[in-house]
Predict the 3D structure of the following.
Amino acid sequence: MAAIDLTRLDRQIDHLAALYHDPAAFQAELHTVFSFYHRYSHRKQKETISKTFMRNYDMPDKVLPHIEARLKPLSLQHPDEALTLADQLWQDQYYESRELATTLVGNLPISHHEQALAVIERWLQEPLDRAVANAIIANASRRIQIEAPVSWKSLILKLLDSGRVQEQKMGLLALAEMIPNSHTDELPGFLAIVREYLVSPESAFDKYLQLVIEALSKKTQQETAYLLREVISDSYDARVGRRIRHYLDFFDEPTKTRILGAIKNQVILPVTQTNGNNSA
């Protein structure tokens, strides 16, 4: 892999930063920089596995983080312009532009956290590439999670309670990220939320719910296992047991055995058919 000339990259970033007040020009120049480093490393495509399904550049790993770090003062010194710029980059078809948009929002001063939350909520309502969703939660909410955690938790609960599948999926994803740093007294509330999703017939939640269960099992294994066994005991739907089977590897062997025993002993009622004609 060819070495990057950081002095040249810094000059390119300085020129880029000077265009912060003109989002369209900034976006065009950003692609010029990305294009310069595209395939710079001369890696064969088969040697790399893209983390996104969006269009993306094949650049050395340090290029985008260096750009993000050097542009941090933009968000701090010109927050309103940074929000406008983030909106422009969000419309881009390339992953790197969207990731930079999330970083610009994440670096806003805490005085702008309400505006940042509104942007995050709007973004999370859209159908998203998984890598982009992860970038929103990890990057765009970074300062809010540290300096306004109550506001961040409120947004997550709002998403989970929205009744809209896309927002609920993103709420679960954000919840999984929040659990490791949460306080012990918050866990009963999280377990109560999880119960509703464990018995949901909606399969679209499964991969996100699995992340939450994994996080909970690391934070409070016995309480999480107790919840799973309780849900199995209270449910007569075979789908619940099948769903929980995917979580067995998150637990130690004795706990896994107890959960598996609950699944095997689950009482399954036959599905009743509705009499008469049914419409779609």
In short: The first helix runs from residue 6 to 17. The chain is about 65% helix and 0% strand.
